[in-house]
Design a protein that fits this description.
Elements: E1 5-7, E2 10-11, H1 14-66, H2 68-74
Antiparallel strand pairs: 1-2
Length: 75
Amino acid sequence: MVEVRTQPGWAFQAEEVALIGELTQRAALALDNALLLSEARNAQWQAESANRAKDEFLAMLGHELRNPLALQLIA
């Protein structure tokens, strides 16, 4: 049995120590989940940003290919 003391003559009971351990594990898990969610949202934002850039490029390319005069002026 683990004995944790806070004040002289007073100690946590085994059930209280078990509860504190469970609560700390759950708090750590919640923090890990929050970090993972933040990383996932950041990755999603980067992917969406890259997708928008791709869409803009393809739109510009499509416009240029439909307009041969613009290609001749550039060359």
